[in-house]
Specification:
Helices cover 50% and strands 6% of the residues. By secondary structure, the protein is mostly helical. α1 packs across α2.
Length: 134
């Protein structure tokens, strides 16, 4: 699995917002320049975060974005899923799997274990922990 640019940009944008003083609004341009992200693409990323309540926004000249929750409450899993969708290591693990062999497949439990470990690791890391370097 490779994290797409969208996922990477999302993590970087939230890291930037987490480092700002409480209540400070940051513009797309400001975030874009500081984190070296394309503005148009970043705007789409931020819209998804706003829809999920991870970020709040204010329109207008003095507007911008700030975290909607504390950095300690924003996990990598939530961020990745906001950008990439549900985490699935293999198509057979999707809820509506088209695989008719799932029940007899020896590999399915292995994929499921790997997926659960990956999800658990993503849940362990928050934006706060990343910034702190832990």
């Amino acid at each position: 699995m490779i994290l797409t640019r969208k996922g990477d940009y999302g993590v970087r944008a939230l890291m930037y917002l987490a480092k700002q003083p409480p209540g400070k609004l940051s513009s797309i341009k400001e975030i874009s320049e500081a984190m070296e992200l394309p503005q148009v693409f970043l705007a789409k990323v931020m819209k998804q975060f706003v829809r999920r309540g991870m970020v709040t926004s204010k329109r207008g000249i003095a507007g911008g974005y700030m975290l909607g929750r504390p950095p300690s409450a924003l996990t990598l899993r939530e961020i990745v899923e906001a950008m990439e969708g549900p985490i699935t290591m293999n198509n057979c693990l999707k809820k509506k799997s088209p695989c008719h062999r799932k029940k007899e497949c020896d590999a399915a439990p292995v994929w499921e274990a790997i997926q659960q470990n990956f999800i658990r690791d993503l849940e362990r890391y928050t934006i706060a922990k990343i910034i702190e370097g832990t």
